[in-house]
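Example 9 (inverse folding). The structure is encoded as follows.
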């Protein structure tokens, strides 16, 4: 709703948001330095390669996606991803969210110009959590699961291209 958007914007402008001094990152007159994290390893990123029932690759991060993934993860807390339709942004975002949470991110804010883009990326992340859960359950049958999004207060804001925010002790 408009009032929630207004309140959220006021929180950001008045430096009462999760990322301290968030607006400073958008001021060209200020020198805000990114937080640095360890670079993801290629072997870690290869675990996100997906295959169909016949062993054919359905999704794999290509070299430019791997480079973008590493930079986006290494230099937080803000990142921007853009590209034409059909270039794998949804799979990339789902992979990035899954990886970030597995590395300790407490929360992720994903913003897009459309609800559908956010929903698709969230669904992709959910698929990855389910896939990895099934892999774990083959090794340890008593792996427990919960409900994705349970007790989450989610608000969508559709302003501009995709923005990913990470809240982690690494940043």
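The amino acid assigned to each position is listed next.
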């Amino acid at each position: 709703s408009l009032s929630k958007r207004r309140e959220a914007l006021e929180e950001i402008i008045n430096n009462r948001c999760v990322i301290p001094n968030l607006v400073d990152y958008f001021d060209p007159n200020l020198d805000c330095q990114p937080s640095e994290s360890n670079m993801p390893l290629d072997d870690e990123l290869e675990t996100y390669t997906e295959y169909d029932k016949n062993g054919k690759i359905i999704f794999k991060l290509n070299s430019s996606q791997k480079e973008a993934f590493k930079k986006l993860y290494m230099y937080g807390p803000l990142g921007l991803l853009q590209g034409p339709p059909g270039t794998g942004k949804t799979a990339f975002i789902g992979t990035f969210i899954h990886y970030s949470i597995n590395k300790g991110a407490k929360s992720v804010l994903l913003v897009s110009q459309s609800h559908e883009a956010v929903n698709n990326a969230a669904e992709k992340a959910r698929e990855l959590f389910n896939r990895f859960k099934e892999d774990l359950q083959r090794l340890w049958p008593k792996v427990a699961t919960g409900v994705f999004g349970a007790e989450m207060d989610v608000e969508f804001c559709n302003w501009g291209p995709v923005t990913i925010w990470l809240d982690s002790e690494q940043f």
